Structure formats: structure tokens, C-alpha cells
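Annotated sample (chain length 419).
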Amino acid sequence: MTEPASTNGRGRALITGAGAVTPLGIGVENFWDASLHGKSGIGEITLFDPSPYPSRIAGECSDFDPTDFMGKKQARRMDRFAQLGIAAGIEAAESAGVADIVRTNPERVGIVMGSGIGGLSTWEREYRVLSERGAGRVSPFLITMMVPNMAAGQLAIMLGATGPSQCPVLACATGGEAIAEGLELIRRGDADVVIAGSSEAPITPLSMAGFCAIRAVSRRNDEPARASRPFDAGRDGFVMSEGAGAVVLESEEHAARRGAEPIAAVAGYGRTTDAYHVTAPDEEGRGVERAMRHALEDGGLTPEQIGHVNAHATATPTGDGPESKAISRVVPHALVSGTKSMTGHSFGAVGATEGIMCALAIKHKVVPPTINLETLADDCEPLNYVGNEATEAPDLEAAISNSMGFGGHNIVVAFTSVQ
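Output written by the structure step:
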């Protein structure tokens, strides 16, 4: 069992490895370097013809080649969301050096790999086959490519991990939920090692049509790099993206026994539900505020210890304003970043990639920026925003990552230094 490390005795899990596939680059090193330099991963859509759509931009993982992580036959039998998730999971496992553990003690290695949507591109493609060519031509791999748990299942098969395996599905709160559940598996002693993360590949014709229909996405097609503008007065919606992130979690005792060098720790989390509206939080941000407070309590932290918030910050008026109010009531002093300004919004995956950003910010004592923040929107509180350039934070010891999902789901994960 995990030795108690937080002041409330509940224990924490150490992050001993990480993996990321994002529009800012493949691999954690590329992802982190690009974020610190304020680069944008947004461009014109190439995965399908976007010309009929009012929004024609997205954050694509354009450098991603699934065969760098698996054989061609395996790749053909997986949806893109699973390919992305497996790539992140493999990088995380390799960076943590857990291959020997998986080989010698596989039942003590768990996987929590979520997805908000699952195999949407497969579903769309095979429905066209059904409509145009008949039921007999539908792929026998449709179901195993489409269901959201296949990133978790396929990763377990590839690694040989036979411990607990789960797939959270909480829309845009999925990634944070995966890390939170990974922490609980470690706390309960159900696993010694947990690979926790999430993936999403939503850039498809039907998905884009749906988000255009509810006018949720930016139409700044002539300036893709400037389109995602969290907290800015000129914002006009989020920018869809794809990607995956994964972390390796271990108890402190287990990590110390094998001499692992942790990046940071997951100290606690908070979960709440708005019970207000299917796509918008309440105007005062009460749900995410409660989640933030629960995360601090669960991690044995005080508000004063939190030096950084990676905000959900989708660049929508319905989301940014309420979240900024919540932050102002809980940690008004903290450095606030809206990193979807660079990555776009990868829905179920983004809580995992933003969690990695929090961990790296604590390790390197630097906070990534919110690019495109030029004039603070009237509905956003005047917080300590990190605008356009990364900021050194030599005293940073704890940070939180906020995620807010359609359906009113809120998940906040608290990260701390390993000392």
C-alpha cells in the first residue's frame, strides 16, 4: 500500500513517466518545448475536405505515424483515437522504465485509458459503407475499432499488463478522471503501476458539422494560429483538436524500491457535477469551484500552496467567465494558463495532456503561456494570467488542472513536487 504523503494521510502517487501525442509535436519533449515557446498547433484541416464548413481549422497531429509504435496490420485494425492513445501509453511506459515490471509481475500493472467519443471516424466510414454498399461489406473490425475502451484494451495487450483496466468516458473531463482513478488504484493497493491517460480523434466531417451547428467553434479561418483565444475579448469559440496523453503512476514505496526518478506527484482530486445544463456551467462557476476545493482537501493542500492553474479555458464565453470566477474565489494569486490557445481542444484527451503540463511546470519551475491573450474579456475576472510568454516560477511546488465536460462534469487534479 502507498505510504501516506499528504497532510490528510490519504497518500499520493508519483508520476515516473509520461507520453504525449499532440498538435504541438509527438513525444513529451517536443510537446513541452513547443508550449514553452508559445507555438500554435492550429492549421487548416487536412484529414478531410473542410471547404463546405464555416469552421475549417483544427489542431491535427500531422507528424503522427502509427507504424512508429505498432505494425501496419495492427494499425489498420485500430481507429485513430486508439493509435494515438497507444503511442502516448508506450512512450510513458518506456520513459518510466517499467518493462521489467510488466514482464515479471503483469497482474500488478493497471491501465486507465479513457476517451470522450471513441472511434468516430470508423463509425462514419463504415456507415457510409453500409449505406452505399450494403450490410455485407461492413468491416468485421467495426465494433472493436469503434468502442471507447479499445485504447485501454489494445494497450494492455501490447504491453502484457493484466492488472485492472478501465476506460472513463466523461466528455472533456475524461483525461482528468483517468488520472484521478489511476491515483485511487494506487491508493487502494490494487496496482503497483498504473498507466493513466486519455485519447481523442474527433476531427471528422460529422463531428465538425455538429459543433458548427451549435456555433461552438472558432471561424477565424484566415488566422488559424490566432484562432484559439482563451479569456480574450476577441474569442469566438474553441478550436477542435486531437491527441493523447498518458502518465505512469506508482506508489512512493514502489518507485523508491526500484530507484525511479519521478517528475512530480498526483496529490489529490475533486469531482463534482453542475446539474445545470448539458453544455454550459452555471454562470458563477460553482461546480468547478467545489471541485477545486475538494481537490485541495483530498491532497492535503491549502489554497496558498497552489502556485499555478492550468485552466479548462476553452475560449468560449459560456466557459471562460464562470471558470475565472471560480478561480478568483479559490486561488486568486495563482498563475493561470489557458494552454488550449496552443493545442486546441482535444476533448477527452486534453485533461491528460494538461495534467502533464502541470507536472512539468512543477518540475522545471516554469509556467506555459496563454497565447493570443491581448485584451481581457469583460466577463473574465482579472486574474494573474500568464499571457503570450512562459513565466519562470522558482517557488512553484503545487498546481491544479481544471477540466469541465459536457453534461456538467467537473474534475480537478492537484499536482505537487516530489519533495
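Annotation: The two ends are 19 Å apart (CA to CA).
Annotation: The domain at 13-416 is CATH 3.40.47.10 (Peroxisomal Thiolase; Chain A, domain 1).
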